[in-house]
Design goal:
357 residues; alpha/beta; TIM Barrel; Lyase, Ornithine Decarboxylase, Chain A, domain 1; 2 domains; four-stranded antiparallel sheet; 12 helices
């Protein structure tokens, strides 16, 4: 895990976004990379506002960054207002009951605490409806709390030219002008690239910080994760034999194979395996890409090393599954998923080593 790369990626996005503030999304344990390492590294280079998913993550982050502004995206569960207040965490309020509960808590305790208000502009996942936002705009100054941010979330920003993206921006701009002097935020990683009109006062990059690419045309970002596993056996098999569970791939030639200590229990997706009909992921061994052959099992994967020199690979050598030109997004494509899932699925059996930062 290259903390200096994460820091550089934030700097790149912050420079692109200015004068809008560049926050950092560190939910799901900083996308699986370790919030205890990632968040302080981001703070050191200038990130001051952070977004997590829920209260437990926010409480952990508060222990790491006592002075940060922290928002919890999943909002306010019943009876948790006191816990948010005790840790100076800002809930993102996405329903009338949440707004009411936070307002009542503030009134009952004679405090006016900050919170974000989430408006649904077309994703239909979280957020108050546009009609509710319009009504709230007429009375929000009488709330018991201080609205510190009006926000929404783009549903299709990673699909260039999608009609919903432009529509969401227009709808959100209309909502924002109803809440004068309240900061506004719409752009995620991909939205940050869509021009000044999408950035408003604050952008919320996530996947771009961690070396994933949610959309083409991104500024130069550094890869963050290098994933390695050890070869535990080198063997041979004749043409016509099959490899792995289910006999899904038959060897077309006499082959040399390297069995590697990595599998789906480590978050290396079974769907990234190879069959006769579809080639799977690759790894770098001895400086050269080698294809997976057969299914990935719980603890093991097998690479075809036939094209390497006979003595190029030995037991104990290292195969690189991310790095050496293999990106998070390439591996995701081979597994039929997205880079977000590749990162957040990285398992607990890996030895994690942090560099830089």
């Amino acid at each position: 895990m290259d903390l200096s790369a994460i820091a550089d990626n934030w700097r790149t996005l912050a420079a692109l976004s200015a004068p809008a503030e560049c926050a950092a999304v560190v939910k799901a344990n900083a996308y699986g990379l370790g919030i205890d390492k990632v968040a302080p590294a981001l703070w050191r280079v200038g990130a001051r506002t952070f977004f997590v998913a829920h209260l437990k993550e926010a409480q952990q982050l508060r222990g790491l960054l006592p002075d940060a502004t922290i928002y919890a995206l999943n909002g306010l569960l019943p009876g948790t207002a006191g816990l948010f207040a005790a840790s100076d965490i800002r809930p993102v309020l996405g329903s009338a009951p949440e707004i009411g509960e936070w307002s009542d808590y503030c009134r009952d305790n004679s405090v006016s605490l900050p919170a974000a208000i989430h408006v649904d502009t077309g994703m239909h996942r979280l957020g108050i409806a546009l009609e509710e936002a319009a009504r709230l705009s007429e009375t929000y100054r009488m709330l018991g709390f201080t609205p510190s941010l009006i926000m929404s979330h783009l549903a299709c920003a990673d699909t260039p030219g999608h009609v919903l993206t432009a529509r969401q921006r227009l709808v959100f701009a209309d909502v924002v002008q109803r809440f004068p002097r309240v900061k506004a935020s719409l752009a995620n990683s991909a939205g940050t690239l869509m021009g000044r009109e999408f950035r408003f006062d604050l952008v919320r990059p996530g996947i771009f910080l961690y070396g994933g690419v949610a959309i083409t045309g991104v500024p130069p970002l550094r890869p963050v994760v290098r994933l390695e596993a050890k070869v535990i056996q080198v063997s041979t098999a004749p043409a016509g034999e099959t490899v792995g569970y289910g006999a899904t791939e038959r060897l077309s030639r006499d082959s040399r194979l390297a069995t590697v200590h990595i599998g789906y229990a480590d978050g290396f997706f079974r769907a990234a395996g190879s069959t006769d009909a579809r080639k799977g992921a690759e790894a770098v061994l001895a400086g050269r890409r080698c294809p997976l052959v057969g299914r990935i099992s719980m603890d093991l994967a097998t690479l075809d090393i036939t094209d390497l020199a006979p003595d190029a690979v030995m037991r104990g050598d290292t195969a690189v599954f991310l790095g050496e030109g293999i990106t998070v997004d390439e591996l995701a494509q081979k597994a039929g998923t997205i880079g977000y899932e590749v990162l957040t699925a990285l398992g607990g059996r890996y030895l994690r080593r942090y560099i830089g930062g």
